[in-house]
Amino acid sequence: MEQENRGPAFAIETLGCKVNQYESSYFFEVLEQAGYRPVSFRERADIYIIHSCAVTAKAGAQTRQLLRRARRANPDARIVVAGCYAQLEADRIAREELATHILGNPDKFALIDWLNRPGSFERPCMAIEPASGAHPFPMADKARSGNGKPAGGPVGFEISPVSRMHTGRARAVVKIQDGCDCFCSYCVVPLVRGRSRSLAPAFVLAQLRDLLKAGYREIVVTGIHLGKWGKDLLPAQSLTDLLEEIASSSLRPPRLRLSSIEPEEFDSRLLELVSAAPWICRHFHIPLQSADPEILSRMGRSYSPGYYEDLVLRLHAAFPEAAIGADVIAGFPGESEKQFENTRKFIEKLPLSYLHVFPFSPRPGAAAAEFSDRVHPDAIKRRAALLQSLGRQKRRTFRQSLIGQRLEVLAQAEERPGLWEGISGNYVKVFFRPRKPLCHGEPVVVEVNGFRGEDLEGTVVAGE
Ligand code: SF4
């Protein structure tokens, strides 16, 4: 009979990107293996971990809010803030007495050791090294043990990334790259995550092997600047090289989803490879940010609206059923009404399927925070609202175009008895009623016959 785990209870709340999600699953693993007991963030815990995000002012505010909530839930708990916002605003967090342990990106992987160090709201335990200091993949901690830092920490990838945190889910995330060298003027990521670093192909394949053995049918390959994967390796390689290696190996997953790729990195070689690889999901997320040439150059972006348009039209022509999503910033300093209209009209005419809209917020240390010609907050709000409504239209139009089509979806969760939701290759949530019991991750083919709220629903035609 499995011994009930009565160890100290921990709860993790993760903000931000898929890389943060992946790293949180790592925290989950090492804590469980160290005898800690997972509880939900709504429950009383002995340790609360907020894995933070610093991309927008809103993400920073959400981090502080979660820290306060955790303290209210259990004032005697160890409250850990880890990751990008901790790296960016450790002093403020300490000044406002929001956490007992403040761990930056380089040190957060040695979580267990830092937890064993004393820390209080008045005198928090702080570990904030320069972002490029440590290798972003846990195995590096082994090498660092000699330098006075907590020795060892989690050791390499013996710790399989498959944990109960993933079990039962249809899709697994694999982080293959961290950091960024671009310094777009609105972005703090290079400051908090450091320079671009890649996970060697052998380790990527090792993770794929473990996840496929665990029964995952979809692997989401992610990074902070995914398109830069391999550039820092010796010899230098590209993301397309890695995908080719996966394609020719026995470790090719039934579905591989690429997370965000910068426009200039979606080159013709990658397009060719994806065209010949039906197992790569027809879902492309390509940040746009603005479609006004002057604003793009002030952002430090290295493509033109024409280049972006050409790329989206080529993708749409090659994969008419594909979801093509874009990030866009509303109200970047100096953006006139006319320049905003350039972006709005540009997006309106393109076959995009959804938008992630970011109201501009100055980030400490990013160049644009010093730009004096700020747009009025009301105008930022209004422009963001216009783009969000345009995004909803795009999302609806894309889903409308799938009605009557057959989609293979991976069963993700039983919404209620007899009603399941699944995710399609082109990133659409589809509800369906299976004719027999299903397990998570099982593929079924559904004929889409209409909307269910903002999502789709259909009838199972094959697979289960
Ligand atoms: S490419 Fe630009 S926006 Fe993206 S992480 Fe790097 S600096 Fe930030």
Distance between the ends: 33 Å
> Given the helix and strand composition, which structural class is it?
alpha/beta
CATH class of the largest domain: Alpha Beta
Report the β-strand fraction as a percent range: 15-25%
Number of strands: 18
The count of domains is: 3
The largest sheet has its strands arranged as 2-1-3-4-5-6
Tertiary shape:
globular
What is Rg?
22 Å
By CATH, the topology of the largest domain is pyruvate-formate lyase- activating enzyme
Instruction: Give the helix tally.
Output: 13
- Mean model confidence by pLDDT: 92
Ligands bound, unique: iron/sulfur cluster
CATH homologous superfamily descriptor of the largest domain: tm_1862 like domain
Overall CATH architecture of the largest domain: Alpha-Beta Horseshoe
For the sheet with most strands, the description reads: 6 strands, parallel
Q: State the helicity in percent bands.
A: 25-40%
Main attributes?
alpha/beta; six-stranded parallel sheet; 464 residues; 3 domains; five-stranded mixed beta barrel; OB fold (Dihydrolipoamide Acetyltransferase, E2P); binds iron/sulfur cluster
